[in-house]
Amino acid sequence: MSFKNIPWKKRIIQTLWILFGIGATVLFGAAITKKSQKICTAIQIEIVGAEQHMFLDEQDILSLINTNGKVIGSPTTKTNLRNLENLLEANSWIDHAELYFDNHQALQVHIQERQPVARVFHIGGGSFYVDSTGMRLPLSEKISAKVPVFTNFPSDKPVLAHPDSMVLQGVVDLSKQILLDSFWMAQIQQVNIDPQSQFELIPMVGNHIILLGSTDHLAAKFKRLNAFYEQALVQQGLNTYEKLDIRFSNQVVAIRRGTEKAQIDSGLAKQIMLQNQQKTINQTIIR
Fold it and tell me: Which of 33, 43, 93, 206 is the most buried (most CB within 10 A)?
């Protein structure tokens, strides 16, 4: 059937559909062209997560974003947002990065910064920060975080063996417990890690050592220590005791200054006496 034989109403409908298709194609092409011509007008940066210490500032973030060229003034279609997010998250201090363009073609940058909970000095002499997840963080030239300090960490290797990883987790757990109380933050000068990977607290006030042991039952241990501070140490003086042992359940073993050596000497004397007695008995039997 020829076009002339088609009813005029049907011809109008077909013509309208053709015109609609052409119009939609033109509009779609115009939209693509307009989008490709959109230019980044600004970069707005928000950094969250650093409650007390901000190790990264806006200039640091801008420098990373512009690593491969300035973003402001460039077409938005040429900015690979996912690549930029990966680039930012490669920084040790950045936990998460989210980027998008708003309706005004401004690049919105949201940064979640890692928060250190401890500074750790290892046996090699260097030090690092660690966050609440156990992530090791480099030192910063801009700021020094006021966090608990740990000494004698047993490894300086980039990849930790399992026992050392467990010690680092203990550092995180203990540091988080100390950070919960402003008194202990002020009172504990540093925490030593002994060769058996046990923890010793060195107080700021008072010439004594607190034997903590492992990081099991930390809340209970600090509760006992706090009660002892309030009762015994306040009444008798902070320098009365040489060591406070809170390693064992439901007790605080307090060793008075100068008595530990006397106890050791006394034990050694008993051992020598027993050895001498046994020697005398042996000589008597031989005779």
Answer: 93
Q: What CATH topology corresponds to 42-113? A: Ubiquitin-like (UB roll) (3.10.20)
Would strands 94-101 and 116-122 be described as parallel, antiparallel, or unpaired? unpaired
Q: Which residue has the tokens 């290797």?
A: 157
CB 194 within 8 A of CB 154: no
Q: Which CATH architecture has domain 116-256?
A: 3-Layer(aba) Sandwich (3.40)
CA distance 117 to 130: 6
232-254 pLDDT per residue, tens: 767 777 788 899 999 999 899 98
What is the rounded end-to-end Cα distance, in angstroms, of the chain? 140
- Residue 242: what residue type? E
Buried b (16+ CB within 10 A) or exposed e, 161-193: eeebeebbebbbbbbebbbeeeebeebbeebbb
Pick from 5, 113, 107, 135: nearest CA to 55: 113
Q: How many residues does the chain have?
A: 287
Q: How many helices (H) and strands (E) does the chain have?
A: 8, 12
The residues near 53 (Cβ < 8 Å, ≥ 6 apart) are 115, 116, 143, 145, 146
How many CA atoms are closer than 13 Å to the CA of 156, on its beta-carbon side? 9
Distances in Å between the alpha carbon of 135 and those of 113, 114, 155?
12, 9, 15
| Both tokens assigned to 138 | 């480099």
- Reference 168, options 221, 132, 140; nearest CA is 132
Q: Check: pTM over 0.90? Answer yes or no.
A: no
CA–CA gap between residue 12 and residue 30 (Å, rounded): 27
| pLDDT of 129 above 90 | yes
d(CA 186, CA 91): 31
